[in-house]
Specification:
The chain has a domain of 46 residues. It has two helices and no strands.
């Protein structure tokens, strides 16, 4: 005799959501959702590239000539072999 037949278990995925869909792109078609996700990712990356130089100057992290020479000495060099 099993006691599990007297226990009703509700799993979290079986509870309906009252706050709207869990996926913000669920109201769009699959193609439109992927286009929006890709576009927003590209916009975020572009904003980061645009603002990173200004943030570098504001926080005083701009590299000096000594830093640039040290980096050039550490970088590997490519040599052409015949």
């Amino acid at each position: 005799m099993s006691l599990w037949r007297y226990v009703s278990v509700r799993l979290p995925h079986s509870i309906p959501s009252t706050n709207g869909p869990a996926d913000p792109f669920a109201i769009f078609s699959r193609g439109r959702a992927s286009t929006l996700a890709l576009g927003s990712t590209m916009a975020w990356a572009g904003l980061g590239l645009f603002l990173s130089d200004k943030a570098e100057e504001v926080f005083g992290l701009k590299p000096t000539e000594n830093d640039k020479e040290g980096l050039k000495a550490v970088l590997p060099r490519v040599r052409r072999v015949d």
